[in-house]
Design brief:
heterodimer, A: 0% strand, globular, B: 94 residues, alpha+beta, 2 domains, elongated
Chain lengths: 501, 94
């Protein structure tokens, strides 16, 4: 008899904890991948609502400082949630799903991953509770000023960076565990199929790049608590060494899904699998070599400017090869299956990526960047990317994931399918208008982030706000049927006693 | 061959061509006279305030500090970029 058995108490915390984790923690790879993508959708709704509300504030060109704290808090929440938690959650969820679905690779550290998941969410809540108005760049001096935080004061402002540090540390650990467990449990021999190859590569990129952000956050914490000097240029460089790659985590993971599924919906092979595989190296390496193009109005030496101008164009060439490969695949097919909502989502994601990517070619050019630097042109470009390749691409994968997990006992009804289809089209169309309105206004000089602006830009602001709200309705049309599937599945399984085959 | 595929390819190639033209236009525009740095009416000591001076052109204006090193810049100067199509109203006090 072991010691544990001999001192068994009627109520033991360890056993109770085990019961709780057994009941509430996800214990399957598919379930855990849904935990991350579904949490991603919830955070998307939170940051989207924040954006819809500050868009209303922006309908007044004569805003004063009175409304600034609300506007900048919402704007910062929008950025924090998007970049610090939504993007990594979607990437990790897609990474887990890709390896599970295509190769049967599994997670094994379920309890640890679940704990890290909840801690990551908690860290974000701690960071947001202070009501930061730092913008997601958290650049000093703004990022270190007492007055930039609505609710934290004194040394407590460090809580924002400690919270973000907890979130990023947990995310980095989960990304590492996902790749590690996946590789360990792989049974198939030979080449890894294309979807998990891309999805896991960019899940691994979280591990390579997030430590730069964690170092910045730690530096700020020490700056606040121990008065360590924070050099703004070095801090900003460190920040962007994570801050640029992070924007590629989801798009490049989604590329894997497009490479795998667009050929299926087109009913033919991918135009060139060789291009797709070689391109991965280009995308992976150059993603980490372009960060300084965010600092073209900072005092950088000419050689760095020349280097990032060239490296960004090379990275753009990699994206060009991707869209050409996929475009040729669809072009050479007999038909493309738009009747499947996933086929439609992937097609719109591809189309949007092209439409959003081409106007960006002006941005890294050293001589031309000042024309559009810090204007709505940049905002229009990257939001179009987010609305299409990130959100619509992820939507395609999430619908597939939900159908796989819940579809057998809670299939989508015809009405749900129609609603999702309408949502996809409304979302795409509306945000195309918002994106181009932003770019047109930005090219004419509308500066981003400001609460007051020249009244001549009011029609652009009105267009952006109206179509953003329409796009929001599109999200509801997509999300309600998807989440109702989960609810129905829960009811069928746990209350009606339906057994899955 | 699908129309959707043709549309994707057309958007890739026509879009890139349009963007190349747009970039060329901006390169030419920013290196043409109205956009080039030109002598400022305020660069000499004027003694008395000039009052309002109408400069009916879009310009790249440089604010240069003549002595001392400005924190965070490598060339002792501060460069102010005026967005395209914006008007710069400068009031100079001696």
């Amino acid at each position: 008899m072991s010691i544990k058995d001999s001192i068994r108490l009627p109520w033991s915390p360890a056993i109770k904890l085990q019961q709780l984790t057994g009941k509430y923690f996800s214990q399957t790879t598919l379930g855990t991948s849904i935990l991350f993508t579904a949490a991603g959708l919830v955070w998307l709704a939170v940051m989207g609502l924040a954006a819809l509300f500050f868009r209303l504030i922006l309908l007044n060109p004569y805003n004063t400082e009175a409304i600034a704290p609300i506007y900048y808090s919402l704007l910062t929440l929008h950025g924090y949630v998007a970049m610090y938690i939504l993007v990594p959650f979607l990437t990790i969820g897609i990474g887990m799903y890709a390896m599970y679905k295509e190769e049967g690779m599994e997670l094994t550290h379920f309890d640890l991953v679940n704990v890290l998941f909840w801690l990551a969410n908690l860290g974000m809540v701690i960071a947001l509770a202070g009501g930061p108005m730092t913008s997601w760049y958290i650049t000093p001096p703004l990022g270190l000023l007492q007055t930039t935080f609505n609710f934290y004061s004194g040394p407590a402002i460090a809580l924002t960076y400690i919270g973000l540090f907890i979130t990023e540390a947990c995310i980095t650990a989960v990304a590492g565990i996902t790749v590690f467990d996946g590789i360990r449990t792989r049974r198939n021999k030979g080449k890894l199929s294309i979807f998990p190859t891309y999805a896991l590569t960019f899940t691994a990129m979280i591990v390579f790049t997030t430590p730069f952000l964690m170092a910045t956050l730690m530096w700020y914490t020490l700056g606040i608590l121990a008065h360590v000097y924070v050099n703004p240029t070095v801090a900003f460089l460190l920040f962007w060494m994570w801050g640029h790659p992070v924007v590629y985590f989801v798009p490049f993971a989604v590329f894997g899904a497009l490479y795998a599924y667009i050929p299926k919906f087109a009913g033919r092979k991918l135009f060139s699998e060789k291009w797709a595989r070689w391109n991965l190296f280009l995308l992976f390496v150059f993603t980490m070599l372009v960060w300084a193009h965010h600092m073209l109005v900072w005092p950088l030496p000419v050689w760095i400017r020349g280097f990032v101008n060239a490296s960004t164009l090379l990275l753009a060439a990699g994206s060009g090869v991707t869209v050409l490969n996929l475009g040729l695949t669809i072009f050479l097919a007999k038909r493309y299956d738009f009747s499947d909502i996933r086929g439609l989502a992937y097609f719109l994601a591809l189309l949007g990526f092209i439409i959003a990517g081409i106007p960006a070619l002006i941005l890294p050019e050293n001589a031309l960047n000042p024309i559009v630097h810090n204007t709505y042109y940049v905002v229009g470009h990257f939001h179009l990317m987010i609305w299409t390749i990130i959100i619509l691409g992820s939507m395609g994968i999430i619908i597939d994931q939900f159908l796989n997990a819940f579809g057998r006992i809670a299939p989508l009804s015809n009405l749900s399918l129609k609603s999702i289809r309408a949502g996809l089209l409304l979302w795409f169309g509306s945000f195309l208008v918002v994106g181009f309105a932003m770019m047109a206004a930005g090219y004419q000089g509308l500066i981003r982030r400001e609460i007051a602006y020249p009244v001549e830009f009011l029609p652009y602001m009105q267009t952006m706000t109206i179509f953003a709200w329409l796009g929001g309705i599109g999200f509801v049309l997509m999300a309600v049927p998807a989440f109702s599937m989960v609810t129905r599945w829960l009811v069928m399984k746990y209350y009606s006693g339906v057994v899955e085959q | 061959m699908t129309k959707a595929g043709l549309a994707v390819l057309l958007i890739i190639f026509l879009g890139t061509a349009v963007m190349a033209a747009f970039i060329s236009y901006n390169l030419i525009a920013t290196s043409s006279p109205p956009f080039r740095a030109y002598p400022s009416p305020f660069s000499k000591y004027v003694g008395q305030p000039l009052g309002e001076v109408q400069v009916n052109q879009t310009a790249l204006a440089s604010l240069v500090v003549s002595q001392g090193k400005v924190n965070g810049t490598t060339n002792n100067g501060v460069i102010l970029y005026i967005p395209f199509n914006w008007t710069l109203n400068l009031t100079v006090y001696n």
